[in-house]
Sequence to fold (210 residues):
Amino acid sequence: MYIPNAFREEDFEKLVAFMGGNSFATLISIQNNFPVASHIPFVITVQNNVVKLTGHLAKQNPQWQFFGMSESLAVFTGPHAYISPSLYEKRESVPTWNYIAVHAYGIPQLITLSDSPELMDNMIDEMIDTYGADYKSHWHSLSDNFRQGMMNGIVGFEMTVTRLEGKYKLSQNRSFTDQYNVAHALLQNADPDAQAIGSAMQTNLEINQQ
Fold:
């Protein structure tokens, strides 16, 4: 990802928290020299400062067939907003777009019911705990045949993150006055994404003033 220094974010905890808060992401892999992508929910875990992403694809989705062979990319995106040049002090300015994104790279390793039943069980339990904890007792009350049939229809994976990139494009390359004006305008906007970007900008300004 192209990241000018002004927008680069390297705070590990901040990046992991962002991923957790925006965990429905895009997984991109290379298949026969062509990029393929799936939009899926991830479970993000951290142990000894190592980030692991787990998830699953439908068995009919061919993307998993190339897992373990090459690097994949998980793209986590958050709020974004158009920035009008009318908000800047300098009249001759250009419009832009502010946004937050985190890229996580790694090689996904397969988890299947036939090869790793315990890992598959753990992967499903973690997914339910993360996204639907109230469903867990229901899930475990279902017949073994139904549960095994469902798990045979998916392919799980675990991806240890080997490279993490964060881009917080929040007008940090502009003057304090420009940043303040943009943040103030976004906070007054009816769009929740614009408000979120305005809030992130306001936080940056407060930190820089300390």
Q: What stands out?
A: The radius of gyration is 21 Å. The helical segments are 12-21, 117-131, 136-141, 144-152, 176-187, 192-209.
